[in-house]
Amino acid sequence: QVQLQESGPGLVRPSETLSLTCTVSGGSITNYYWSWIRQTPGKGLEWIGYIYYSGFTDYHPSLKSRVTISRDMSKNQVSLNLRSVSAADTAVYYCARSGFWTINWFDPWGQGIPVTVSS
Amino acid sequence: EIVLTQSPATLSLSPGERATLSCRASQSVSSQLAWYQQKPGQAPRLLISDASNRATGIPARFSGSGSGTDFTLTISSLEPEDFAVYYCQQRRESLTFGPGTKVDIK
Q1: B residues 9-38 near A, CB within 8 Å?
Q2: CA within 20 to 30 Å of A102's CA: A16, B15, B101, B106, which one?
Q3: CA dist., res. B33 & res. B48, Å (int)
Q4: Taking the CA atoms of chain B, what radius of gyration do you get in angstroms?
C-alpha cells in the first residue's frame, strides 16, 4: 500500500523560498502523476500543481510564476519549491498521488505538513 | 476557472439519519467530479470518483449521483465516524475544490 510523507521546515521567512519534499513508500512514482495541494481556513483546498513521473508539470495559474515541482526517481521523491512567500502562503501542504498515466483524482494523500510564513 | 458551490455549509443530523449533500459547478464538468471526506487533523480521503464510483474500501452507504453541473453525495444512514467535512472536486478544467459541507451531530 503506497504511503506519502511530507517533510520540510515548518517556518519560512517572508520573501524566501518554501521547500518541501514528499517521500513515496510502498510503490514507485513511475507511471503516476503527483500533486501538491494546500489548505487554509480562508481559501480552503487549493491545488498547487502536479508532476508526471516523466517530468511533465502543470501549475495553478495564480501560482505558476512562483512554483516549481520536481521529482527524484532514485529517491522516489517529489519536491515543491514556492518562491517569494508571504503570509498568504501559510497553510497545511499535502502531497497526493493523482492518476495513473493520466491526471485523475487525489488518492492517497500524505498526512500534510503545516507551514507558517512569518519573520 | 470552474467554481464549485456546496450546500448546505453545515448539516446537523443524528446517527442513523440520511445525509444529502449538494455540489454545483459554474459550468458543466460532465461526470468529472469526486467527493472527499476530511476528519479533524487528517488529510482528505477519496470517497467517490467520476461522480458515482465508490473508491476502494468505501462503505456502500456512501453514494454519488449527478452529471453536468449538479451533483449529490448521499450517506444513507449516518454512522458516528461519518461526522466530518465533505468536499467536492472537479477535473474537467484544471483542478478545483468546493468549500466543503460540515456534517455535525445534532
Answers
A1: 34, 36
A2: B101
A3: 8
A4: 13
At B73, list the grid cell: 453525495
Name the region of A77 (left: φ>0; alpha: ψ -120 to 50; beta: rest): beta
Any residues with CB less than 8 A from the CB of A22 and at least 6 apart, and which?
A4, A5, A6, A7, A34, A36, A77, A78, A79, A80, A95, A110
Which pLDDT belongs to residue B82? 98
- Kindly report, residue by residue over B28-85, the tens digit of the pLDDT: 999 999 999 999 999 999 999 999 999 999 999 999 999 999 999 999 999 999 999 9
Neighbouring-strand partners of residue B86: B37, B101
Q: Distances in Å between the alpha carbon of B31 and those of A108, B64, B91, B96, B103?
A: 21, 11, 9, 14, 24
H helix runs in chain A, sequence order: none
A60/B94 touch (CB, cutoff 8 Å), yes or no: yes
Among the partner-chain residues B42, B55, B87, the one whose CB lies closest to the CB of A45 is: B87
Distance between alpha carbon B57 and the CA centroid of its chain, in Å?
A: 16
The verdict on a CB contact (< 8 Å) between A94 and B43 is: yes
Nearest residue in A to B99, CA atom: A44
